[in-house]
Amino acid sequence: MKTILFALIAASSLSACVVQPARVKLRSPIVLEPVVVEPVYDDHYHRGGGFCPPGQAKKGRC
After folding, report:
1. Do residues 62 and 52 make contact, with C-beta atoms less than 8 angstroms apart?
2. How far is residue 23 CA from its own chain's centroid?
3. Rounded Cα–Cα distance for residues 55 and 26 (Å)
4. What is the DSSP string of 2-41?
5. Distance between CA atoms of 18 and 9, rounded to whole angstroms?
6. Measured CA distances, 60 to 23, 37, 42, 55, 56 (Å)
7. Is the model more confident about 56 or about 50?
8. How far, CA to CA in Å, does 5 sit from each of 10, 37, 55?
């Protein structure tokens, strides 16, 4: 009798459990625009006829 009572209590306690699947919210992807940073050449360092990096003279920056 005790085993039947224990089995009924165990079965009723397990039947009250509810298993729910994981909830996943989908959203649209975030698109990041590429940022282009152009270097700023300061002519202050190049005016005195000092060092001019290779390729910069051809571009007219020295």
Report:
1. yes
2. 21
3. 50
4. HHHHHHHHHHHHHHT----PPP----PPPPPPPPP-PPPP
5. 17
6. 60, 20, 13, 9, 6
7. 56
8. 9, 76, 91
Residue 47 DSSP SS3? coil
Rg (CA), the chain: 37
d(CA 62, CA 51): 9
Counting every residue, how long is the chain? 62
Encode pLDDT of 23-37 as tens digits. Answer: 888 888 888 888 888
46 within 8 A of 62, measured Cβ to Cβ? yes
Q: How many CB atoms lie within 10 A of CB 46?
A: 16
Structure tokens at 42: 């300061």
Task: List the single range of 4-13, 21-30, 42-51 with lowest mean pLDDT.
Answer: 42-51
